[in-house]
Amino acid sequence: MERLQKIIAQAGVASRRKAEELITEGRVKVNGKVITELGTKVGGRAEVEVDGVKLEREEHVYYMLYKPTGVVSTVEDDKGRKTVVDLVPPGHRVFPVGRLDYNTSGLLLLTNDGEFSNLLLHPKYKVPKRYIVKIKGVPDYYHVKGLEKGVVLPDGFKTGKARVEMRDVDKKKNTAILEMVIYEGHNRQVRQMVETLGAEVIKLKREQFGFLTLAGLTSGDWRELSKKEVNQLRELADPVAPPTKRRKNTKKR
Fold first, then answer.
1. What is 2-54's CATH number, 3.30.1360.120, 1.10.3720.10, 3.10.290.10, 1.10.10.10?
2. What is the end-to-end Cα distance of the chain in Å, rounded?
């Protein structure tokens, strides 16, 4: 028996908080009966509907992808461009955990476990993400280090603490390479942080998410996360989160 809002979140329909709203608004049915009481527990064979659509409970899968540039981080694209879902095995209704821009490459997670995704993306858990950024323009060292204290982006978002290092400078070409570790996932955050320096991003790559790295993968490759890795990610995000149970099966294409 599991709480109804958890089942909805795990199906990827909504976050657990949003699932609670759906329940209290009378938009959820269990075995044909409208449920509005939070905390209601549901058995594994119960039929759950949200807005008249039956939830399909499927085995959870967890993929790590080395996203190439020129691929969109969505399930489908109305412009007909290749999506990250096209790069992982078919058969499961997976979605990306957060996004990487069209012109950004690097480590991206995909899953059909909505609760797992929400846990990793929740700002209060501060899961670290490490990027390598090649920029046009050589900013002042002290301005670069100023990014570590947090800056206000053009859309008004105030970034939290970060780690920023100047790894290389080419004064002849007027370029520099930064290593940046951030703990949020605000839209275009790294690019906007760089822009506050008066510089322009030439190339951006996410090399690490939590403890996961791209070791052993080349652009376009994927692999399935192990049960141990999934549980370690849960532990990293929320030390009190229970471990997950899933089959052992690691692939690479």
1. 3.10.290.10
2. 37
Q: What is the residue-level pLDDT of the chain in tens, covering all 253 positions?
A: 788 988 888 777 777 788 899 999 999 999 999 999 998 998 878 899 999 998 877 788 999 999 999 999 999 898 999 999 999 999 888 999 999 999 999 999 999 888 899 889 887 888 999 999 999 999 999 999 999 999 999 889 999 999 999 999 999 999 999 999 999 888 899 999 999 999 999 999 999 999 999 999 999 999 999 999 999 999 998 766 555 544 444 344 4
Name residue 222's beta-bridge partners: 65
Write out the E strands in 16-162: 28-30, 33-34, 41-42, 48-50, 53-54, 62-67, 95-96, 104-111, 129-136
Architecture of 128-209 per CATH?
2-Layer Sandwich (3.30)
Report how far apart, in Å, the C-alpha atoms of 243 and of each of 9, 228, 231 are.
16, 9, 5
Flag whether the pTM goes above 0.90: no
DSSP state of 119: H
Distance CA 200, CA 179 (A): 15
Active site residues: 101
> Residue 34, SS3?
strand
Paired with 65 in beta bridges are 108, 222
For the chain, give every domain's residue range: 2-54, 62-123+216-237, 128-209
Residue 244 backbone phi and psi in degrees, to 5? -100, 155
Please tell me the distance from the alpha carbon of residue 141 to that of residue 144, in angstroms, as a whole number: 5
Ramachandran bin of 176, using left for φ above 0, alpha for ψ from -120 to 50, beta for the remaining angles: beta
